[in-house]
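To the wet lab folks,

You asked to see what we're planning to order before we commit. Fair enough. Below is the target structure as tokens, and below that is the sequence we designed to fit it. If anything looks off to you, flag it before the synthesis order goes out.
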């Protein structure tokens, strides 16, 4: 039996730095959004998709520089109709006013959200979220930060990613990731509390008790 991956028609793709740490099944979903889950599992189970020449499971974590070897049916983006089919668009949250569905932001909205940037580098954005602005959309919410992230692309081809939340009525510093790798690091840091948060509250008067725990 001829190994399909030994054929000159088979094609490999190198894992980029931004994809470092991504699960293999997630990597395949991003590169082939129309490929059904069942077909992905079959290709992996039969060894038609390999990492650095070896078989790999769906939950394998990829490292930058590794080569994912693909069968001829997926070369050049996939010749199968399923592989080429576009992913179903997700429903926009927060309605059309939230801009989550891809509606274009006005110049005023872009200028307003960019004016709130406190710090920016290649990996992260730090912004000053005002009170009254929801981070994500929901029932009855129109305007929200998630729907304005396209205005914070700057020189990047990707919109920044949310990594933590602040309540709608809370003002404060919000850290956004500009790459997948920084998003993973920040999300893990907030989840495991290796990144510390400090909250200040403006109060009227002085509490009678000097200290306590909420």
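Sequence we intend to order:
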């Amino acid at each position: 039996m001829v190994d399909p991956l030994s054929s000159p028609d088979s094609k490999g793709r190198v894992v980029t730095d931004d994809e470092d740490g991504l699960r293999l099944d997630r990597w395949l979903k991003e590169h082939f959004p129309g490929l059904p889950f069942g077909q992905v599992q079959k290709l992996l189970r039969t060894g038609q998709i390999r990492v650095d020449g070896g078989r790999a499971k769906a939950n394998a974590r990829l490292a930058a520089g590794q080569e994912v070897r693909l069968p001829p049916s997926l070369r050049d983006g996939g010749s199968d109709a399923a592989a080429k089919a576009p992913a179903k668009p997700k429903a926009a949250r927060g309605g059309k006013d939230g801009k989550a569905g891809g509606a274009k932001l006005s110049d005023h909205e872009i200028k307003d959200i960019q004016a709130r940037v406190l710090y920016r580098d290649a990996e992260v954005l730090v912004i000053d979220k005002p009170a009254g602005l929801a981070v994500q959309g929901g029932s009855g919410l129109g305007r929200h930060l998630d729907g304005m992230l396209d205005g914070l692309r700057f020189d990047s081809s990707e919109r920044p990613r949310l990594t933590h939340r602040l309540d709608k009525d809370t003002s404060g510093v919000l850290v956004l990731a500009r790459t997948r790798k920084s998003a993973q690091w920040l999300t893990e840091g907030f989840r495991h509390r290796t990144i510390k948060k400090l909250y200040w509250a403006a109060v009227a008067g002085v509490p009678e008790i000097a200290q306590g725990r909420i």
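Structural context that might help your review: The radius of gyration is 22 Å. The first helix runs from residue 24 to 31.

Thanks,
Computational group
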